[in-house]
Amino acid sequence: MERRAGRRAVLVAHHTPDVYGSDRQLLESISALVSADYRVVLALPTDGPLTTLARERGAEVEFVDFPVLRKAFLSPRGLVTLLRHSVTALPRCIRAIRRAGAGAVYVNTLTIPIWVLAGRLARRPAVCHVHEANEEGRRVLRVALASPLLFANRIIANSDATAATIRANFPPARSRIHVVHNGVPEPTVAVPELAARNGVPATLTVLGRLSPTKGTDLALEAVAELVSRGYDVRVNLAGSVFPGYEWFEEQLRERAERPDLRGRVRFLGYVQPVWGVLGEADVVLLASRTESFGIAAVEAQLAGRPVVAPSLQGLRETVEDRVTGLLVRPEDPAALADAVASLLDDPATAARLAAAGRTSAKERFSVAVYRERIAAEVAELVR
């Protein structure tokens, strides 16, 4: 990438080279900064699909070995390992910031707090873009995980729900929080309109990681409930697992092979772009146990598909119950099945919700507005 004299640089740190919700949002942040004439250097722990996409958006990419917070670290032995890795990685992160000539550090998740600290030690202002709204676990642990925000000059929350979680877990950060809702790109290809099934089995689509947090197991139980009621349904699972969570996929596959679900579950793996699999869906089913925003819900709306989701956190900001989708009790497969059944039984309501959802998503979560807001936040940080 051309380096013009005097051009401002921002080091952007991200925790994974994959391309899911917050990862795709990172690409929009890169585009926002490049359009504002920043030189963007993206620091990743390893190579992966995100690398090429980031370069296409105009970023330079550097690979730096640094720790990422995972549940596996939340044990005495794990914390010792995390601390050891952090101590050795901190100088590398500081050198990367200085090598990039960065005037600011943009940390794209709460799971890599080492970069916030590195920015402070390198005497560069840091912004932490928080995509997590975790309300699980002991409060003392949640406070500890949020404590690195003390070193951030500015905090961007991807939803009001995320902002509320930060305030609850770490009150000292409240004065530095700014909410910028995600910007979700519209379909790049024509997505078929929602159509009558005419005797064809109904297709449900579940977008997102195969993980306990995303509630993929709850989605399968909802499908099993529908089958027990006599509905002829299939489900597409569009997503893969984090390294270390292979056990969860094994459990899902074992469940899918039981008699009530056998032949009804397709494991598609990682899917990008998502418009093809959304075009096959009669209903998009989300079953998350926690969700800071819900990019998958917005993508479903942009594809003109009715959404069924749990009524929690950020999903209440992206889906308005009975207006742009249906919200049900969290962690309740029977309630999910009830909502899906109501849409399969009433195609007119399904079409109405899908149309309203598409209009709402285009108006509220545009990429143009998001890029403008992100560029403004970083400009304030640098200033």
Short description:
The protein has 383 residues and is an alpha/beta fold. It is 42% helix and 15% strand. The strands form two sheets. The chain has a seven-stranded parallel β-sheet with strand order 3-2-1-4-5-6-7. A six-stranded parallel β-sheet has the order 10-9-8-11-12-13, with helices on both faces.
Rg, please?
21 Å
Mean pLDDT: 91
Share in β-strands? 15-25%
CATH T-level topology of the largest domain: Rossmann fold
CATH architecture of the largest domain: 3-Layer(aba) Sandwich
The level-1 CATH class of the largest domain: Alpha Beta
For the biggest β-sheet, the strand order reads 3-2-1-4-5-6-7
Termini gap: 24 Å
What is the makeup of the main sheet?
Answer: 7 strands, parallel
Shape from CA axes? globular
Extended strand count: 13
Low-confidence stretches: 1-5
Sheet/helix structural class: alpha/beta
Number of helices: 14
Bin the helical content: 40-55%
The total domain count is 2
CATH superfamily heading of the largest domain = Glycogen Phosphorylase B
Q: How are helices and strands ordered from N to C?
A: EHEHEHEHEHEHEEHEHEHEHEHEHHH
Which descriptors apply to this entry?
single chain; 383 residues; alpha/beta; Rossmann fold; 2 domains; seven-stranded parallel sheet; six-stranded parallel sheet; 14 helices; disordered N terminus
How are the secondary structure elements laid out?
Blueprint lengths: L8 E5 L7 H15 L3 E6 L4 H8 L3 E4 L12 H24 L4 E4 L6 H8 L4 E5 L8 H8 L7 E4 L2 H10 L7 E3 L22 E6 L8 H13 L4 E6 L7 H11 L8 E5 L5 H5 L3 E3 L9 H8 L4 E4 L4 H4 L7 E3 L4 H13 L1 H18 L2 H16 L1
Parallel strand pairs: 1-2, 1-4, 2-3, 4-5, 5-6, 6-7, 8-9, 8-11, 9-10, 11-12, 12-13
